[in-house]
């Protein structure tokens, strides 16, 4: 059976040699794999019946709306059913996305033109926020990124969707890219509610949502940013966030360029 080792190499200046330390991490690796497999299988199994429940609830809701008498009495019940089954479904969808990124061994990196992807997503996601008027501006000085198309799209969906979610009725989002040394830097800045300084360091943790009271008003699973971070790390990239409470937030990502 397979064994996993972590190898650390330390240069020894005095004797112009190297010290190599091997650490057996097989147990930890196997435990991680079992957890990932379990979450992936479980999410997959739950998602199918949940999708059916969701569809049936929608159908029942439409049928009830046609019958005025029933509608008044049952509407609140169906709204709760609808909201909660949607929440569960998005939770399991996010869990599946997270585990599938964790388990991914190889990326299909290619040079992609990001402008149509990003502008298209901003337009598409707008449909979910019909009452908001958000102005997007773009400046793509690095118009081509070397990334896995599907995973990059997931990063942008999560970040743009968060910008919509955590901006008020009116707001601005700027998305820029530039070349920084051997990397391409992507920045997405909004002038929304921002993130309190004392919570900023936890923002990429699984299930973490800023301040329960404000999060309960906006639907979410607390998994979006940890999916983003995993994807960036799979690309050997880096992500950081800076934010001023009630002023806005900037996410900065570095993707290595093609060598
Ligand atoms: P979700 O949005 O599902 O709660 P995320 O992992 O995407 O989960 O984000 C974690 C938390 O970070 C959110 O609950 C929100 O409080 C905060 N957050 C993320 N993006 C922004 C943003 N652009 N502006 C303000 N807060 C944000």
UniProtKB/TrEMBL annotation:
Residue span(s) of domain Histidine kinase: 41-259
The protein's Enzyme Commission number: 2.7.13.3
Keyword terms: ATP-binding, Kinase, Membrane, Nucleotide-binding, Phosphoprotein, Transferase, Transmembrane, Transmembrane helix, Two-component regulatory system
Keyword check for ATP-binding: yes
Residue stretches in coiled coil: none
Domain of life: Bacteria
GO molecular function annotation: ATP binding
ATP-binding as UniProt keyword: yes
Reaction(s) catalysed (UniProt annotation): ATP + protein L-histidine = ADP + protein N-phospho-L-histidine
Protein name, entry field: histidine kinase
Organism: Bacteriovorax antarcticus
Residues of the full protein shown: 196 to 454 of 454
């Amino acid at each position: 059976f397979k064994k996993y080792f972590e190898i650390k190499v330390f240069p020894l200046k005095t004797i112009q040699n190297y010290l190599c330390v091997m650490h057996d991490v097989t147990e930890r690796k196997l435990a991680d794999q079992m957890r990932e497999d379990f979450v992936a299988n479980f999410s997959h199994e739950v998602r199918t019946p949940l999708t059916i429940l969701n569809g049936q609830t929608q159908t029942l809701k439409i049928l009830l709306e046609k019958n005025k008498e029933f509608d008044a009495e049952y509407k609140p019940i169906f709204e709760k059913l609808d909201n909660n089954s949607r929440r569960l479904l998005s939770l399991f969808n996010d869990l599946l996305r997270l585990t599938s990124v964790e388990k991914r061994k190889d990326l299909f990196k290619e040079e992609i033109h990001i402008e149509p992807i990003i502008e298209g997503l901003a337009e598409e996601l707008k449909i979910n926020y019909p009452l908001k008027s958000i102005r997007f501006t773009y400046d793509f000085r690095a118009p081509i990124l070397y990334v896995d198309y599907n995973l990059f799209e997931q990063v942008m969906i999560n970040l743009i969707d968060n910008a919509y979610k955590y901006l008020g009725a009116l707001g601005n989002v700027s998305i820029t890219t530039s070349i920084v040394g051997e990397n391409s830097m992507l920045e997405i800045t909004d002038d929304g509610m921002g993130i309190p300084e004392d919570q900023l360091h936890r923002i990429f943790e699984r299930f973490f949502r800023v301040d329960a009271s404000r999060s309960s008003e906006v639907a979410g699973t607390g998994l979006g940013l940890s999916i983003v971070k995993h994807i960036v790390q799979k690309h050997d990239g880096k992500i950081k966030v800076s934010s001023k409470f009630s002023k806005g937030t900037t996410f900065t990502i570095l993707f290595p360029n093609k060598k």
